[in-house]
TrEMBL record:
<dbReference type="GO" id="GO:0005886">
    <property type="term" value="C:plasma membrane"/>
</dbReference>
<dbReference type="InterPro" id="IPR002528">
    <property type="entry name" value="MATE_fam"/>
</dbReference>
<feature type="transmembrane region" description="Helical">
    <location>
        <begin position="340"/>
        <end position="364"/>
    </location>
</feature>
<feature type="transmembrane region" description="Helical">
    <location>
        <begin position="68"/>
        <end position="88"/>
    </location>
</feature>
<dbReference type="InterPro" id="IPR050833">
    <property type="entry name" value="Poly_Biosynth_Transport"/>
</dbReference>
<dbReference type="GO" id="GO:0015297">
    <property type="term" value="F:antiporter activity"/>
</dbReference>
<feature type="transmembrane region" description="Helical">
    <location>
        <begin position="34"/>
        <end position="56"/>
    </location>
</feature>
<keyword id="KW-0812">Transmembrane</keyword>
<dbReference type="GO" id="GO:0042910">
    <property type="term" value="F:xenobiotic transmembrane transporter activity"/>
</dbReference>
<feature type="transmembrane region" description="Helical">
    <location>
        <begin position="429"/>
        <end position="452"/>
    </location>
</feature>
<feature type="transmembrane region" description="Helical">
    <location>
        <begin position="213"/>
        <end position="236"/>
    </location>
</feature>
<keyword id="KW-0472">Membrane</keyword>
<feature type="transmembrane region" description="Helical">
    <location>
        <begin position="156"/>
        <end position="176"/>
    </location>
</feature>
<feature type="transmembrane region" description="Helical">
    <location>
        <begin position="257"/>
        <end position="276"/>
    </location>
</feature>
<protein>
    <recommendedName>
        <fullName>Polysaccharide biosynthesis protein</fullName>
    </recommendedName>
</protein>
<dbReference type="Pfam" id="PF01554">
    <property type="entry name" value="MatE"/>
</dbReference>
<keyword id="KW-1003">Cell membrane</keyword>
Length: 461
């Protein structure tokens, strides 16, 4: 080998060692940040979950099982307005994370200001659309409302619908905090929201206030608005340099965001179709009592998924950073540990299924007849969901949406017809969760395959 060749070889060796050292140092810092966020998230989310579980029996006691089922259906119906977020929140989160990883403060300010202005404009437009739709539509033809006055239902839909639309703008602060790897901040907001709701509902129960659907929507609206405004105040008081300003708005940045956000829009449609159509379909075909029973069971199983998300969601921005820095070994190790964790989660789901009657009675102080088929469907669906979750977070964090489109489109098209078909077969509400399990099953294979393929192609140049 020539002197020049030896010199180049030595330089490459030092460069490789230097890169390995940087990766090791980055991984150590990343792990420390992750552990801190996990600790805070578990604390806040644990308290938030405790409060959310307290809300259920308080609400059932005030409204009764039938009216509570209608309230859940209304809440699911207005959540369809989340479609119109267009995926901008997650698209902006990824862009801000990348800008922060590259220490580009000016880009961070531009993305934040552009995001707030776009969300505020979108919210005003959607409020007008909501008012027109509610005034023109016949609520009785969409929902099973029984003997509840349609005017009360309309007012409830408007109140909670407008609140959710406003949350497009106010909730953006949680995306910004997450991009700064402060995912626990959103959990703190949920604690405040649930705490306000619990205090109001306890007051109603103690003083025998006659609760209605409309009153419940007002309670929810007040709690959400106060918690979101407080979160924005706290965040921007700590980060005054990031306060949005019209001078940082960039229309060219908006087009850049929209290209990325379209994929997240499709992801959101899939999530909403899977998560929120269930209640509406059960209300229409089986009645409000079945809605209440289904959602009680779903909430118990979903509590484990929420705890799972405490581990996975902080990984979103950490995955983005690690992928950007091509730290592929760290990502593979996270996948391996998470897969073992899911096995333990499957055991927890099985135990919930076995003791479901006892858990329900202790929780809501009422006995419900829960079919074995519904419990089995819940176990299968949530095990599949838990397995898919981490791979989904990774793929979304690296904006691998285009590759997921075939699966997402299949789920969006197939879910509702399958739910209705299984109900008509006589499976009852169990048919709804079984249909959802069938729809997410393909991703349990395709998701891991796609994730490892992305890592393999993510080589240092």
């Amino acid at each position: 080998m020539s002197v020049k060749g030896k010199l180049n070889s030595i330089i490459r060796e030092f460069k490789n060692k230097d890169e390995q050292g940087i990766h090791a140092n980055d991984a150590k810092k990343r792990n420390l940040r992750l552990i801190l966020q996990l600790g805070l998230s578990f604390g806040y989310k644990g308290l938030s979950m405790f409060l959310s579980f307290a809300i259920v029996p308080l609400s059932i006691h005030l409204l009764g099982s039938n009216e509570y089922g209608l309230w859940l259906t209304i809440f699911s119906l207005v959540n369809f307005f989340l479609f119109f977020d267009l995926g901008l929140g997650n698209g902006l989160k990824n862009k801000i994370t990348i800008a922060l990883a590259n220490n580009n403060t000016e880009d961070v300010k531009r993305y934040i200001s552009t995001g707030y202005i776009v969300f505020a404009s979108l919210s005003l437009f959607l409020i007008l659309i909501l008012v027109l739709v509610v005034k023109l539509a016949k609520i009785q033809s969409i929902l099973t409302i029984g003997d509840i006055a349609s005017n009360d239902v309309e007012r409830a839909i408007l109140t909670i619908g407008i609140t959710i639309i406003i949350s497009f703008t106010l909730n953006f602060v949680y995306n910004i905090a997450a991009s700064m790897q402060n995912i626990s901040f959103s959990n703190l907001g949920m604690v405040l929201n649930n705490l306000i709701t619990v205090v109001i509902l306890i007051f109603f129960n103690v003083f025998k206030v006659r609760a209605t659907i409309n009153l419940m929507s007002q309670v929810t609206a007040v709690s959400l608005i106060i918690s979101m405004v407080t979160a924005n105040f706290i965040f921007f008081k700590k980060n005054p340099n990031l306060i949005p300003s019209i001078k940082y708005f960039r229309s060219d940045y908006l087009m850049n965001i929209l290209k990325l956000s379209f994929g997240f829009f499709i992801v959101q449609i899939q999530v909403i179709v899977i998560s929120f159509t269930d209640t509406i379909i059960i209300n229409k075909y089986l009645g409000n009592i079945e809605v209440t029973k289904y959602n009680l069971i779903y909430k118990l199983f979903n509590a484990v998924i929420v705890l799972l998300s405490l581990i996975s969601m902080p990984l979103w921005t950490v995955f983005t950073e690690a992928f950007e820095k091509k730290d592929n070994d760290w990502i593979r190790n996270v996948f391996k540990r998470f897969n073992y964790f899911v096995l333990g989660v499957a055991v927890v789901f099985t135990l919930i299924g076995v003791f479901i009657d006892q858990i329900l009675f202790v929780w809501v102080q009422k006995e419900y007849q829960i079919p074995v088929l519904l419990i089995s469907g819940m176990v299968i669906y949530h095990v599949l969901y838990a397995w898919n979750y981490n791979y989904s977070v990774f793929l979304n964090s690296v904006s691998a949406i285009k590759e997921q489109l075939p699966y997402l489109v299949f789920t969006i098209i197939a879910n509702v017809p399958l739910c209705i078909y299984f109900i008509k077969l006589g499976l009852g509400s169990a048919g709804v969760i079984i249909a959802s399990a069938v729809c997410i099953l393909p991703f349990s294979i395709y998701g891991p395959y796609l994730a490892y393929k992305k890592i393999k192609l993510n080589k240092a140049v």
